[in-house]
Amino acid sequence: MAKHTARNSNVSTLFRRCVLAGGYALLSFVTALSISWFVLALSNFGYGLWHDIGGIEEGIEKYGPLNRFKPGFADTTRAQRIDLFQQINYSVHHGGEGLAQIQYQTPSSGGVQLLLRAPEIEHLQDVANLIDFLRVVALGAIFAWGLASVLLWRKRALPHLLDQCVGLAIWLLPAVVAVFVIGPETVFNFMHVQVFPPGHQWFFYYQESLMSTMMLAPVLFGWIAAAMLLLSLLLFFVFQGVIASRSRS
Length: 249
Description:
The chain has helices at residues 2-42, 47-53, 56-63, 78-92, 118-154, 161-182, 184-195, 210-215, 219-248; strands spanning 103-104, 113-114. It is an all-alpha fold. Strands 1-2 form a two-stranded antiparallel sheet.
């Protein structure tokens, strides 16, 4: 009986240790994710690369001529598309500034055309507002992680990497399972409904939105998410290596 009680106590202690370590790992991963976003935003999220290898060029050639509102977009050059995406990227990271002024012109466009229609501008303004909020959250996470790291380092209580990985799985596994059980698309749509204001359009057919066409949404978002995940994991383990080396010094 005493052995059974001791075994349960050891398991409980191990579980609690991993959960606490997982909390720190989760904070580290959110910090890495935040830094990854800032880095990718400065590099235009690699749009030129995804345009070339991610099927976006082919999507523009297919759906650009079908747009009911804006002519000639399929004849834009690669450089024009990268510049247009960069303007959108800049705008949504600066409170929506300049969204209504983004324009393009091609031999078949019938003169200068504004890239975005009113519903698209409204949606991208919502995105800009969301980014403003998430920027505050990200900076808060980075500050909290830095403070926690310093305190744990001073106490020589930084959790072991294995405990962090197990703990991180304990924190994230239920959410990952829920996403796959419910369905990624259903979760994606649900999050949009919850995040964006009621009555604001967030789903656009390619035939009505050059914004969607030039991003081949959600294809571009998938490439960006993959890049963010890889960069975040790299930063996460770099953090662990740096902190571990400092703790031994």
